């Protein structure tokens, strides 16, 4: 017997013509570990809010034999020591937090007394998850836990979740992470949610088989619709010709040449009436068949305004270190040449983003060793955190970019047209990331610095980005922790910063 039942759930936001969910039915066990998948804007966070009771369905109901708890937690006083910042909203004893936290890191005693705001993103995630799983009688709803986690932290968090006995729902676009921790998949498609048994790879095989069947069914429907339209055209032409023959032929009695036959006129009207009735039936049949089309995610290739540099060597470091008093990382040596991509990895807080800002002259700090970058090189920078304001049109105008190019890219990234006129700051995090990505792709550049480009993007978008990089070979430095993405590159082009 299922412990969470979703019955005929229908939900739409005010003013929304097409509901996000329509008559959704699910049966979920409390010990299931589920990955919630779906494209940006399809309703993943909305579904979690419906489970939490923060949103009310327009129709249907959710029956639960558990208490849901949401990640990320609400932290009102980040300047407090971590244990106090957590206890401000959540009942947990110091020893309980230490116990759970020690399963993910070795410094829990020291960590919980540091100000929460001074913890790295990975440390904050671990503290919040330890708080969530302190009680076995809650069912956690975990929304994007891997964003900003380094590779080692992802492994620690995955190992922690994998060994939990209680179930949970997790939203993540990190395929390697999902494969380690889930045993069921909830996939949002069109306005329903499909349920699959197994991890992400199992789901992907089933989904590809399903999509292949859908493609074949869709092709049959297209062929039938084409046949019906051809039949409708022939019937209409036949009726029009009959009417012409009866009314406009001088050699036919009653056609308008030598007099008028009431019998012929009535017969022509009946023919036209039958033709219109046939057309109406065919139109209805076409509509019915169009409604049967299956929803298959189809993506279009992205474009990039990449300009190869004239010189072969674009950027180089030799025995280089950045220093805040002491060095941030051990000396690094590497050269980035035209049309090469170099992936930079390393633990949180080691200085990866700071290195990008140093290249861009956004920070002034001491350094040792040698750093060189081509004079007059045009750089496009995609920041880890999106801080854009105003509309997309204003963004294009302020940066001298082609608005149509940006909008075309956003459509290819699956962004709905109805949000194009919204202020960017009011968009979802995934939509904001797509705007920032489109801006970078439209900017003419010889070198791209992308800091965690996959954060908040759905799996289809991630594949679009990887395909673009492989096909166009732009010169790039990329900071990324997603293991599946990293594994797509030759190990000689992966540089790990170390202490």
**Strand-residue proportion:** 15-25%
Task: Indicate the mean pLDDT.
Answer: 89
- The computed structural class is alpha/beta
User: What is the total tally of β strands?
Assistant: 18
- Can you tell me the CATH class of the largest domain? Alpha Beta
How does the overall form come out from the CA principal axes?
A: globular
What strand line-up does the widest sheet have?
A: 5-6-7-3-8-9
Please count the helical segments.
15
Q: What fold name stands as the CATH topology of the largest domain? A: Rossmann fold
Q: What is the level-2 CATH architecture name of the largest domain?
A: 3-Layer(aba) Sandwich
Evaluate the radius of gyration: 30 Å
For the termini, the CA-CA separation is 52 Å
The overall number of domains is 3
User: How helix-rich are the residues, as a percent range?
Assistant: 25-40%
Tell me the CATH superfamily of the largest domain: P-loop containing nucleotide triphosphate hydrolases
Largest sheet: 6 strands, mixed
Poorly predicted residue ranges? none
């Amino acid at each position: 017997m299922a412990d969470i039942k979703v019955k005929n759930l229908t939900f739409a936001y005010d003013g929304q013509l097409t509901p996000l969910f329509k008559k959704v039915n699910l049966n979920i066990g409390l010990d299931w570990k589920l990955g919630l998948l779906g494209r940006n804007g399809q309703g993943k966070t909305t579904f979690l809010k419906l489970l939490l009771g923060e949103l009310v369905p327009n129709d249907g109901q959710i029956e639960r034999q558990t208490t849901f708890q949401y990640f990320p937690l609400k932290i009102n006083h980040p300047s407090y020591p971590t244990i106090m910042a957590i206890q401000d909203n959540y009942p947990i004893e110091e020893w309980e937090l230490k116990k759970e936290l020690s399963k993910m890191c070795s410094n829990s005693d020291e960590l919980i007394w540091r100000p929460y705001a001074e913890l790295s993103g990975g440390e904050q995630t671990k503290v919040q998850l330890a708080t969530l799983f302190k009680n076995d009688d809650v069912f956690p709803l975990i929304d994007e836990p891997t964003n900003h986690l380094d590779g080692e932290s992802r492994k620690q968090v995955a190992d922690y979740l994998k060994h939990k006995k209680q179930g949970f729902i997790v939203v993540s676009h990190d395929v390697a992470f999902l494969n380690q921790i889930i045993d069921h998949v909830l996939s949002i498609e069109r306005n329903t949610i499909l349920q699959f048994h197994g991890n992400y790879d199992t789901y992907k095989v089933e989904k590809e088989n399903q999509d292949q069947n859908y493609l074949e069914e869709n092709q049959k429907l297209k062929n039938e619709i084409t046949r019906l339209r051809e039949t409708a055209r022939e019937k209409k032409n036949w009726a029009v010709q009959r009417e012409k023959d009866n009314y406009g032929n001088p050699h036919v009695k009653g056609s308008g040449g030598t007099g008028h036959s009431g019998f012929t006129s009535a017969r022509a009207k009946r023919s036209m009436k039958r033709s219109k009735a046939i057309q109406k039936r065919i139109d209805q049949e076409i509509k019915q068949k169009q409604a049967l089309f299956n929803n298959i995610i189809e993506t279009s290739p992205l474009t990039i305004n990449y300009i190869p540099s004239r010189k072969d060597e674009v950027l180089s470091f030799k025995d280089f270190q950045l220093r805040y008093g002491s060095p941030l990382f051990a000396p690094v040596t590497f050269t980035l040449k035209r049309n090469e991509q170099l992936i930079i990895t390393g633990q949180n807080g080691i200085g990866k983003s700071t290195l990008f800002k140093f290249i861009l002259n956004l920070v002034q700090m001491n350094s040792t060793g040698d750093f060189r970058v081509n004079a007059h090189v045009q750089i496009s920078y995609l920041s880890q955190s999106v801080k854009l304001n105003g509309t997309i049109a204003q963004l294009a105008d302020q940066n001298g970019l082609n608005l149509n190019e940006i909008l075309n890219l956003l459509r290819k990234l699956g962004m709905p047209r109805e949000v194009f006129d919204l202020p960017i700051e009011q968009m979802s995090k995934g939509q904001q990331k797509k705007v920032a990505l489109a801006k970078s792709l439209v900017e003419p550049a010889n070198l791209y610095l992308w800091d965690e480009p996959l954060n908040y993007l759905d799996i289809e978008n991630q594949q679009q980005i990887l395909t673009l990089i492989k096909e166009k070979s732009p010169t790039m430095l990329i900071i990324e922790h997603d293991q599946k993405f990293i594994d797509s590159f030759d190990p000689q082009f992966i540089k790990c910063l170390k202490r």
